[in-house]
Design brief:
Elements lengths: L6 H12 L5 H9 L2 H17 L7 H29 L6 H29 L2
Helix pairs in contact: 1-2, 1-5, 3-4, 4-5
Amino acid sequence: MAPARPGGAMVLAGLLWATGRCSLTEVISATSRLHVPIWAGLGGLVVSGLMLHPDLHSLLTQAKIALVGLLTLNGLQAGLLGRRLAEATGPVGRGLTAWSGATALLSQVCWWGAVAIGFLNTNR
């Protein structure tokens, strides 16, 4: 079973900010509370995957491992992004906005990709 994806709430908060429905301060405050559940979800993804005794020679399994590794790296750089956004005074530039969007997109692709591969591997 896949863990809940608290990262989806971060994407929603970012969309609310991008559409002017809340301030950047509100988004940073809301998303800062999600870091622990997100890392717990990632840990759950790894532990549940290990408990299923994956076939490490399978290309699907190798792809899932790569997605989880990429998700981990993305999470680490997201911490830096969060600090940069918290330090921003005034309007956020295009660079930080693009970085935020790319981080959210990569996170979603990795989470959903890992979950889909896990589902496919379980039903083989």
